[in-house]
Write a structure and sequence with these properties.
Elements: E1 6-11, E2 26-27, E3 30-31, H1 32-40, E4 46-53, H2 56-64, E5 68-71, H3 83-91, E6 98-101, H4 111-123, E7 128-134, E8 140-143, E9 146-149, E10 167-177, H5 178-182, E11 191-195, H6 207-220, H7 228-231
Length: about 240
Amino acid sequence: KNMSDITGLIMVRSGSVRCKNKNIRRFADTSLLENKIKTLKNVKGLKEIVVNSDCEKMLSVADNLGAVSVFRNPEFATSNTHPRDLYKHVAECITTPNVLSASVCYPMMTVDSYNGIVDLFNASSHESVVACHSVKHHMWINTEHGYEPLNYEPGSQPNSQELPEVVSVCWGGVLTNTEIMRNGDLIGRKPCFYEVSEHEAVDIDTELDFMVSETIYKSVNGLIGCRCRKNGECCKANQK
């Protein structure tokens, strides 16, 4: 595998339903889209960074930050678009054999984690490397026979730290063979998982997620007390 065979891909659309304009509204000292582009620009070995979107404002952000902007057919930018159809459509703009898909909704994903994903992909024979975090909870699943325990036997439940390994996918970092994406998937059938820290795995889907994530982001990046939500720019920017 050649490290320059990877395209960094950011897929964003205009129609956020539960968290309005989350991709480009102010998030601490940045925006979710700006943060992800700047992070990927520091990841080693990416041939280019592509921002695929139906939104001209988002594509303009990409242009201004030196990413490649690709307009998405609005037909593939609705809440009803099936992921399979989206992946097939977006894959048409990828020219490299491999693609690192990085959702903006995971703003705490670090350059070190992305580099680790790239290193693991290049060193292994797996068709994809997927960011994840362990889920250490006593879990039940809804089946046709009602709820049943998923990862333990009732009456003999172990301590949470002793539960079987169950991981949750973090869509903030999925490095895959582009051919898999052309077939309508990202992960494939033989992935390798790369565990990230608990705060890196925080996902933004709702307004509450946005506020909580922004607070964590400020804490991690030394921006606690920042008034940027009020004045439009980071009050601590000169301290970075």
